[in-house]
Amino acid sequence: MAAAMATTPVVGLGTSTLSSPNNRLNLSSGFLKSPVTVRNPLKVAKASGGKFTCFERNWLRRDLNVIGFGLIGWIAPSSIPAINGNSLTGLFFSSIGTELAHFPTGPALTSPFWLWLVCWHLGLFLTLTFGQIGFKGRTEDYF
């Protein structure tokens, strides 16, 4: 009985039959790509100077254009006087001056310096992040 079940044809697979786990079936289809040997980048000889790494050597792909344009792209709009006639950059820089007036003592937790610090840097880092995504996406033909 077990021998008969080992070669039972399976409906939907054409002439394929069930076999024991020791025998491997090589099913192919027009929807699947041809078998390609997948190389493990950790085992490639002399990858990254002979060191085993999981990432490309230049994973950040740093470009100074992004930093320059991102900084200009954030300072320009944050310098528009939109907060009671003051700009975010102006409020942040003036709060730095106010806090430096009593230098050895740090800013109090209720000081508006913290609000301007967080808002200004949050905007800067978002601008730099989206600038990196957009600039690299354009140069590498993602969009």
Automatic annotation (TrEMBL):
Mind telling me which InterPro entries this protein's record contains?
PSI_PsaO (IPR017498)
Q: Which Pfam families match?
A: PsaO_TMD (PF22832)
This protein's source sits in the domain of life called: Eukaryota
What is the protein name for this chain?
A: Photosystem I subunit O
The UniProt transmembrane annotation reads 64-83, 113-135
Query: Which controlled-vocabulary keywords does the entry list?
Result: Membrane, Transmembrane, Transmembrane helix
The residues the entry assigns to the signal sequence are none
